[in-house]
């Protein structure tokens, strides 16, 4: 499953997957009790400008990645969606409105992933092969039916689980690296973790990237690459490079801490990450030979 490229001594040789979950700050699952979906269009929309900044960052470092995009965002910003593809990145699905898989039945989930895939393909003119569940919400109880619905809807891979113990998501005993979820019809590619002292620690991005010192992320990903010979999966959101984003009233202490911690440091850490490792698209790393 891993894609490696020969390099000069001392340079990164394993190609890791750089991924972006294209959603706005108010669409995170933790904000659901405070902002209903009917209020989304009334918020200050910042996803376009933040995603443009990410595209510029990637271009400066010659990085190509995978953008898991909400249908809600693509519908409102079709030119941004086309620009993602025009810049050489993979366009993938993040569902329509960031609804957790566990909050849908199979019929609702199938309609959601088919609707999103069709829109993204219509806008971009490119086949959409990948899917990422909102808040990594394919859990152990519902995994089998969700994976089957994705395969039936035409997806080739999912990146929707994290093999850790967490209060909102995670399957601690899941494989740490890519595995066939439904025979040979759908590949599941978990977010990268490092095994340490008998437990898995997330080193694949998100709030963990902002919580831990950058040195930990660099050490852990290097260990996954060099000692385990595996490609890492890194993810972040456009709002994570936006410390000036609005702050809704009434947020709980835990939500405020998790969402706003070290937003002012994320961009600089991403620049270091671009330099320290080699990056590519999910489809090219995990579906080699299938074409773009």
Distance between the amino and carboxyl termini: 17 Å
CATH class descriptor name: Alpha Beta
Task: State mean pLDDT (0 to 100 scale).
Answer: 91
Which fold does the CATH topology refer to?
A: TIM Barrel
Residue share in β-strands: 15-25%
Q: What's the number of domains?
A: 1
What is the overall number of helices? 10
Fourth-level CATH superfamily? Glycoside hydrolase/deacetylase
Give the name of the CATH architecture.
Alpha-Beta Barrel
Radius of gyration: 18 Å
Query: Helix share of residues?
Result: 25-40%
* Largest sheet entry: 6 strands, mixed
Structural class: alpha/beta
Estimate the global geometry from the Cα principal axes: globular
Entry summary:
The protein has helices at about 45-60, 70-75, 80-85, 105-125, 145-150, 205-210, 215-225, 255-260, 265-275, 280-285, and strands at about 5, 15-20, 65-70, 90-95, 130, 155-160, 180, 185-190, 195, 200, 235, 280. It has about 290 residues and is an alpha/beta fold.
Describe the protein in words:
This protein is of the alpha/beta class and 292 residues long. The chain has one domain (3-286): TIM Barrel, CATH 3.20.20. Helices cover 35% and strands 15% of the residues. The protein contains ten helices and twelve strands. The protein has helices at residues 47-60, 71-76, 78-86, 106-124, 143-152, 207-211, 214-226, 253-260, 263-276, 282-286; strands at residues 3-4, 14-22, 66-69, 90-93, 130-131, 157-158, 179-182, 186-188, 193-196, 199-202, 233-236, 278-280. Strands 1, 2, 3, 4, 11 and 12 form a six-stranded mixed β-sheet that branches. A four-stranded mixed β-sheet has the order 5-6-8-7. Strand 9 and strand 10 form a beta hairpin. The longest helix is centred in the middle third of the chain and has 19 residues, at 106-124. Residues 1-9 have low confidence and may be disordered.
